[in-house]
Design a protein that fits this description.
single chain, mainly alpha, 3-stranded antiparallel sheet, 12 helices, binds acetyl coenzyme *A, binds (2S)-2-hydroxybutanedioic acid
Length: 264
């Protein structure tokens, strides 16, 4: 009989061997003919299933809302400095992307992990927040450099409004809101940020859509799929900042001496 040589790679999300590429078993022509959007493509390639329209719309809203946040944030700043050093598009992009992490844009997975654990263990917001403080861990998804209790992040409000209107359940989001109410009672800067909103709402999407088993949800949270949403979204803005600097023919950036405290 036939002897199958052992393969060096296993792949389960896409296939380009036929007449047309398939994403999660769905041929490209169907994707185009059915009017699928980028949320559907993410569903197929990341979650390996077609998700209901309200889920794919939510994914698309996350991407649109996180695409950019001006030139002053860590990622855009790095990209702008790199573009002004005359580097190519990919270098400018990755230079910005490399700032995404636990403080900036990359707190979504940890927000989902900690909110899920606290909610599932029935911790009160007080027990959760004070427990984190004892461990010396900042609550992921809480806090912002410029947003405040009296100057909330519009993106958070938009995501919450969409979910309240379209999701069957928003229990994790409501828990995160209770946590925010408690943290705001401690300090005005401890608002829910966009990472916290996406992290908690994605838990509701995963649990409420009926499309995922409990072990699948645990795996998604454990592997950490959700920072991918910010990485993907912010790439749009970082590419825009690269083109902007090149269009403006900006010279090499050098930080002014006056803005550095030289000290021993
Ligand atoms: N949990 C507990 N305490 C916090 C938190 C938090 N998440 N965030 C800030 N604080 C406290 C700090 O401990 C500090 O208190 P102290 O002065 O008594 O030490 C004080 O608030 C500092 O506040 P800021 O100067 O406004 O915050 P900072 O610039 O240090 O940090 C940051 C801002 C990085 C966003 C912070 O709030 C944080 O680490 N949050 C958790 C991570 C996170 O969610 N990041 C995503 C932000 S949204 C985005 O990037 C798209
Ligand atoms: C962002 O989306 O980049 C911001 O929330 C971060 C910031 O400091 O404004």
């Amino acid at each position: 009989g036939k002897v199958r040589a052992p393969t060096h790679i296993i792949s389960t999300i896409s296939d380009d061997r036929g007449e047309e590429p398939c994403y999660g078993g769905v041929p490209m022509s169907s994707i185009v003919e059915q009017g699928f959007g980028v949320g559907d493509v993410i569903s197929l390639l990341w979650f390996k299933r077609s998700l209901p329209r309200y889920c794919t719309k939510f994914i698309e809203i996350c991407i649109m809302l996180c695409a950019d946040h001006g030139p002053c944030v860590s990622g855009a700043h790095n990209t702008i400095v790199t573009a002004r050093a005359g580097k190519d598009l990919v270098s400018c992009l990755v230079s910005g992307l490399l700032t995404i992490g636990p403080r900036f844009g990359g707190a979504i997975d940890d927000a989902a992990r900690y909110f899920k654990d606290a909610y599932d263990r029935n911790l009160t917001p007080y027990e959760f927040v004070e427990g984190m403080k004892k461990k010396g861990i900042r609550v992921p998804g809480i806090g912002h450099r410029i947003k405040r209790g009296d100057n909330r992040d519009k993106r958070v409000e938009l995501l919450q409004l969409f979910a309240r209107t379209n999701f069957p359940s928003v229990k994790y989001m409501e828990y995160a809101v209770q946590v925010e109410t408690y943290t705001l009672s401690k300090a005005n800067n401890l608002v829910m940020n966009v990472d916290g909103a996406i992290g908690s709402l994605f838990l509701d999407l995963l649990a409420g859509s009926g499309m995922f088993t409990k072990p699948e949800i645990d795996e998604i949270v454990e592997i950490g799929y959700l920072n991918g949403l910010f990485v993907l979204a912010r790439s749009i803005g970082l590419i825009g900042h690269t083109f902007d600097q090149k269009r403006l023919k900006q010279p090499l950036y050098r930080h002014p001496w006056e803005d550095v405290l030289y000290t021993k």
